[in-house]
């Protein structure tokens, strides 16, 4: 804790990110609810005083005669203008939220690259958030390279016939007498990049390279090339010693940064998170890290989270496979609506159920996730969509899986039949503590349907 306090003190106003960071008054809002705005958001010309690229993320409305914003399923820090920001929070407790995001394999958050905010540390390290740290460190290092690497003076001692710098007469006389020939002992100070701050950066880059090397995705190949280039640029830097990468050491580096090397503050702060295996708290802004604002689409996170938890629990049985209906084969099982299809000039609509569960290669359950509270009977439009999925995939069991469950409801309630289709209401309480118990009961209930 002392290290964090020291870091907070030494970072005040430091670095490129801090220089362009705008402090705004924060308005609190909640996902999918309306938030009335303070006076002054309508400009003299009648337009709204909102950033153009942020305005499209909301639906401006009037509530009781006052200008308001209808929040969606996006959560996070939304800069509205130079004076105000809207912090949209989810109903999910912070611990459960970070677990959801951490389990949402393949999910990429929306980054407002032009706008920054403060983040606090957390032990949770969702992969999508960790990728942001990687990109920010690489961007900060590009600025460092453009301005020149930080150097320190290192004392170098020479022993030989050609002295350089300050001559040590006593050591020279002793070595001359011992060798029986003239020997000069001298020392000088030389500028070098091989010292603490650059060793921290090298350690962080090598750690990231080891983490991502071999990832076949196109976006990751680009990151790997950037990591290789950064490591090559630090070729004259030797590996860090353990005491050189401690939080207290990084505090000392930041405290002693020359004015012309302020851009090191951003890189060292992000490097510290990587070196210490820390993550970013999505909802806690009481920290020192200044990074672009991260927006989380809870509907997309919920879908990826459910797919992951079912895979983790069900695929212990090798006959069961939890498939992604959004991706085309072979990665997923997305398909087209019509087969055969005879309409010319119109594309065959896609069929992309969220989750398809197979047993021995045969589809046994099709699930469509709904990030909203569950009713006793799923909404008709949702039910019709699920039945269409079932018909296309040749599966009689279909489920609408909702983000909500009260004590009177089960985890996979049979609502009824539509023809030969069995319609289930899937439910999980994302506010449960511990949520791991809720996840297991949902998975066990779904296993019983297969």
Describe the structure.
The chain has 450 residues and is an alpha+beta fold. Among the domains are: 14-123 and 283-297, no CATH class; 152-192, no CATH class; 315-447, no CATH class. 35% of the residues lie in helices and 26% in strands. It has helices spanning 2-11, 15-20, 52-55, 94-103, 127-147, 169-179, 196-212, 218-233, 247-255, 264-275, 298-314, 380-392, 435-447; strands at residues 25-30, 34-36, 59-63, 66-70, 74-79, 84-89, 110-119, 121-122, 152-160, 166-167, 184-192, 279-280, 289-297, 320-324, 335-336, 350-351, 355-359, 362-370, 397-402, 412-418, 421-427. A six-stranded mixed beta sheet has the order 14-17-18-19-21-20, sandwiched between helices. The protein has a five-stranded mixed beta sheet with strand order 1-6-5-13-7. Strand 3 and strand 4 (66-70) form a beta hairpin. Helix 7 (196-212) runs antiparallel to helix 8.
Counting helices, strands and paired strands, the structural category is alpha+beta
In round numbers, the mean pLDDT is 86
Main beta-sheet annotation? 6 strands, mixed
Question: Which residues form runs of ≥5 with pLDDT under 50?
Answer: 1-6
User: Rg, please?
Assistant: 29 Å
Distance between the termini: 50 Å
Rough shape? elongated
Enumerate the strands of the largest sheet in spatial order, edge to edge or round the barrel.
14-17-18-19-21-20
User: Percentage of helical residues?
Assistant: 25-40%
Report the portion of residues in β strands. Answer: 25-35%
**SS elements, strand count:** 21
Q: Count up the helices.
A: 13
């Amino acid at each position: 804790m002392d290290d964090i306090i020291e870091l907070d003190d030494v970072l005040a106003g430091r670095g490129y990110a801090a220089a362009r960071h705008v402090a705004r008054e924060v308005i609190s809002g909640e996902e999918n609810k309306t938030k009335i705005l303070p006076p002054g958001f309508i400009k003299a010309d009648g337009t709204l005083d909102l950033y153009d690229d942020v305005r499209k993320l909301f639906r401006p409305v009037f509530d009781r005669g006052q200008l308001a914003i209808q929040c969606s399923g996006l959560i996070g820090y939304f800069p509205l203008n130079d004076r105000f920001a809207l912090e949209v929070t989810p109903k999910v407790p912070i611990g459960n939220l970070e677990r959801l995001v951490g389990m949402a394999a393949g999910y990429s958050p929306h980054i407002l690259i032009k706008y920054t905010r403060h983040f606090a540390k957390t032990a949770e390290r969702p992969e999508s958030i960790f990728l942001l740290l990687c990109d920010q460190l690489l961007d900060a290092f590009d600025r460092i390279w453009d301005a020149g690497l930080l150097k320190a003076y290192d004392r170098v001692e020479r022993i030989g016939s050609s002295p350089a710098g300050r001559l040590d007469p006593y050591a020279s006389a002793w070595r001359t007498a011992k060798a029986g020939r003239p020997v000069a002992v001298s020392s000088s100070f030389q500028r070098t990049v091989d010292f603490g701050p650059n060793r921290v950066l090298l350690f962080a880059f090598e750690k990231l390279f080891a983490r991502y090397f071999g990832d076949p995705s196109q976006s990751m190949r680009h990151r790997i090339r950037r990591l290789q280039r950064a490591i090559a640029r630090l070729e004259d830097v030797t590996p860090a010693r353990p005491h050189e990468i401690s939080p207290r050491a990084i505090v000392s580096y930041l405290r002693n940064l020359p004015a012309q090397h302020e851009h090191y503050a951003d890189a060292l702060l992000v490097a510290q998170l990587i070196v210490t295996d820390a993550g970013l708290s999505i909802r806690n802004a009481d920290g020192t890290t200044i990074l672009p604002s991260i927006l989380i689409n809870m509907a997309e996170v919920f879908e990826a989270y459910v797919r992951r938890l079912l895979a983790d629990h069900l695929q212990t049985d090798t006959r069961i496979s939890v498939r992604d209906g959004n991706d085309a084969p072979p990665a997923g099982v997305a398909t087209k609506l019509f087969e055969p299809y005879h309409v010319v000039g119109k594309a065959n609509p896609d069929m992309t159920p969220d989750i398809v569960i197979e047993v021995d290669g045969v589809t046994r359950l099709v699930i469509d996730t709904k990030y909203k509270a569950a009713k006793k009977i799923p909404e008709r439009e949702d039910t019709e969509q699920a039945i269409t999925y079932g018909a296309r995939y040749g599966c009689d069991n279909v489920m609408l899986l909702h983000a909500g469950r009260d004590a009177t409801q089960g985890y996979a309630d049979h609502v009824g039949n539509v023809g030969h289709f069995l319609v289930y209401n899937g439910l999980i309480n994302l506010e449960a503590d511990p949520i791991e118990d809720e996840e297991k009961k949902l998975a066990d209930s779904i296993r019983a349907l297969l």
